[in-house]
Write a structure and sequence with these properties.
305 residues; Spore Coat Polysaccharide Biosynthesis Protein SpsA, Chain A; alpha/beta; 13 helices
Length: 305
């Protein structure tokens, strides 16, 4: 075994062979010397398996699950089979920049925390613009950093799954929840941050590319608002009232508005006031999600502030 700790990159994938091969190659192109890549194919998928098998690199291992189980379970399975003492996640449609692992491991190995969770900035890229997120460095309370918005657009506070690096021992204590359809990353960060000895470390430069395909269907664009509301209710004991109110205004309300579920308008507004502590901006954002034209909301998002 080399003295340099091995980092295992876990990449769950299904039915996207042209994208996952790009993701795998960026993980294998890291400047850090000891990286292995575990691609977990979520159910039988011959095209993806063949595309991955065409990558000739002994550091790549391909695991094909007998049936689809979802990304959370696939990640858990990948960690169980990881050789590395450190774990990092990469989605099959995203990329790492070459120095990501090297810079993060330097920070992790010098951390004062027993279980450092190392994140970084990233490039949020669409076909029409590219932004650097998060605009704000991690701070306390963590739930407000992740869930509350103090600006009109997205990207203020973020600990993206594709930027995270952490000890495998920590993940064994707190794995992803396979029962969640949405918000698995937020749920994990909130739960794991309560573990003794855990702390956030951060590299203040972009080390990954988050491809936000505007025309590709995803869970975030198709899920029912009730899924997000049920999740935020389930973690109320771990978050502040401000975080609760802002999450409903900026995450749950937009889904309900897209679904034209006007019955949710008064219900969600009541939840914000009775169970949360909204700011004037939270209320303004909530109203904007229902009544502002989509072109205006998109323009604000492109501005990134």
């Amino acid at each position: 075994m080399p003295e340099t700790p091995i980092v295992t990159a876990i990449i769950p994938t299904r039915n996207r062979p042209h994208l996952v091969t790009r993701a795998v190659r960026t993980a294998l192109s890291q400047t850090y010397p000891c990286v292995e890549v575990v691609a977990v194919v979520d159910g039988p998928d011959d095209l993806t398996t063949k595309a991955l098998a065409a990558i000739s690199d002994e550091r790549l291992r391909i695991i094909t699950l007998p049936q689809p189980v979802g990304s959370a379970h696939a990640r858990n399975f990948g960690v169980e089979n990881a050789q590395g003492k450190w774990i990092a996640f990469l989605d099959d449609d995203d990329e790492w920049l070459p120095e990501k692992t090297e810079l993060q491991m330097k920070l992790a190995l010098n951390s004062a925390f027993r279980y450092p969770i190392v994140s970084s900035k990233l490039f949020a890229r669409t076909s029409s613009y590219e932004l650097v997120w998060p605009r704000k460095l991690p701070c306390s309370p963590l739930s407000e950093y992740l869930l509350a918005r103090n600006a009109w657009s997205y990207g203020e506070g973020l600990l993206s799954t594709i930027t995270l690096l952490f000890p495998k021992d920590l993940y064994r204590l707190v794995p992803f929840r396979p029962d969640l359809r949405r918000h698995q990353d937020l749920d994990w960060i909130l739960r794991v941050s309560r573990q003794d000895g855990t702390g956030i470390e951060f590299v203040p430069k972009p080390l990954a590319i988050w491809h936000q395909a505007e025309h590709r269907s995803s869970i975030s664009t198709t899920a029912n608002w009730r899924t997000s509301f049920e999740w935020i209710e389930s973690v109320r004991g771990m978050i502040t009232e401000r975080a609760y109110a802002s999450f409903i205004a900026t995450n749950v309300a937009p889904q309900a508005a897209r679904q034209h579920d006007w019955g949710a308008f008064s219900f969600l507004l009541r939840m914000i006031w009775t169970r949360g502590k909204p700011t004037a901006r939270d209320v303004a954002v909530f109203m904007g999600m229902w009544f502002a034209p989509q072109r205006i909301r998109h323009a604000i998002r492109r501005r990134g502030r």
